[in-house]
Amino acid sequence: MSDVVIQATNLSVDVQSKQILKNISFQVLKGEVLALLGGNGAGKSTTIKTFLGLMKPTSGDVSLVGVSVPTNPDVVRKQVAYLPESVMLYGHLTAIENIRYFLSLSGKQKSDEDIAVSLKRVALQSSSWHQPLSGYSKGMRQKTAIALALLRDAPILFLDEPTSGLDPVAIDEFNRLINQLASQGATILMVTHDVYGACHVANRIGLLRDGELVGMFDAPAEGNIDSEVVHKAFSQGSEA
Ligand SMILES: Nc1ncnc2c1ncn2[C@@H]1O[C@H](COP(=O)(O)OP(=O)(O)OP(=O)(O)O)[C@@H](O)[C@H]1O
């Protein structure tokens, strides 16, 4: 099982005696994109936070490349790039300044040429590279954040609602970039409400409902999404 990069094993998380994640288990293999789908409050962000070491399992474990996160939180810093729903970069700095600043915080040395290669790889127009991010669209900010993630050489990506607020062209570009990164060996876990979008980018889809993993299947080809699946993920408690 050496190809397993991201693994949750019988993971439960309680907060203030409320069970938020209930005994969930899944794996993401090297080069794979897994999308966890679910409605509001299903436990998607909690799952990511547990993998980032920001929340602790009440029981069970989460591991990255075979290393348990709760007992070795350093594995996150070394292996993971995380894109929250709202990319946290400085609006008054340019793309290049943001990248230089955040690389210096993580102790990485990269040349101007490396930075240019990364910005080209995510297809951020070079005319924007020296403009402050306050004038960027959400898609452009996201490309900058992905370029930074690439420069940090992080082989694991966690994405929280990555396409919310993007226009269809930006979503298409984003999906292509994610698939390209995965084909080059990145392992990607994304959480989303967007069942149709997830089918375009993910290899497999997990359904989270009320903290339980209620389904896991290969992403269906475009246009073949079973409405039962949508209902299963998004109906509340006893309705399903
Ligand atoms: N720190 C906390 N204290 C109390 N309850 C929490 C805490 N964190 C999460 N929860 C609860 O856990 C449940 C799952 O939350 P989570 O944010 O993981 O869901 P989500 O699937 O990401 O939802 P959304 O799509 O709305 O972002 C919710 O009912 C939420 O209120």
TrEMBL record:
One of its GO terms (molecular function) is ATP binding. Residues 6-235 form the ABC transporter domain. SUPFAM superfamilies: P-loop containing nucleoside triphosphate hydrolases (SSF52540). SMART domains: AAA. InterPro entries: AAA+_ATPase, ABC_transporter-like_ATP-bd, ABC_Transporter_VariousFunc, P-loop_NTPase. It comes from the Bacteria. Keywords: ATP-binding, Nucleotide-binding, Transport. PANTHER family: ABC TRANSPORTER ATP-BINDING PROTEIN ALBC-RELATED (PTHR42939). This is ABC-2 type transport system ATP-binding protein.
